[in-house]
Specification:
Elements (H helix, E strand, L loop, with lengths): L5 E7 L2 E7 L4 H21 L5 H56 L1
Antiparallel strand pairs: 1-2
């Protein structure tokens, strides 16, 4: 069963935006808006004189870059774990073969 969407008001750079989200995503959406506002506020201090549009684009680029770095890190970790699982599986298979040989030898 899909949950109904809930209308939520988010403030970014002093402007209110109405967005819809699932009720169980409400807190994450609020946290995302807070992170966005924090990043915009920090950049506004460093890049005085920049328009809200320029700030938004720079923050969007920074957040996109962070996201891509994190996705890459997760992908590398996943590949590393898959390789390790294959190695462990090979060790287990070899141990089972060895155990099977020992069992056959014991029966003879």
């Amino acid at each position: 069963m899909t949950e109904s969407l809930e209308s939520v008001e988010i403030n970014v750079l002093g402007r209110a935006y109405r967005v819809s989200c699932q009720p169980d995503q409400y807190l994450l959406l609020r946290q995302a808006a807070q992170r966005l506002n924090d990043a915009l506020g920090d950049l506004r201090i460093r890049a005085r004189g920049s328009s809200n549009e320029q700030l938004a684009i720079m923050v969007a680029l920074n957040l996109s870059h962070e996201l891509l770095l994190e996705k890459n890190r997760i992908q590398q970790y996943s590949e590393s774990m898959e390789q390790r699982i294959r190695q462990l599986n090979d060790v287990i298979q070899e141990a089972l073969k060895e155990q099977s040989k020992l069992s056959v030898d014991d029966c003879n």
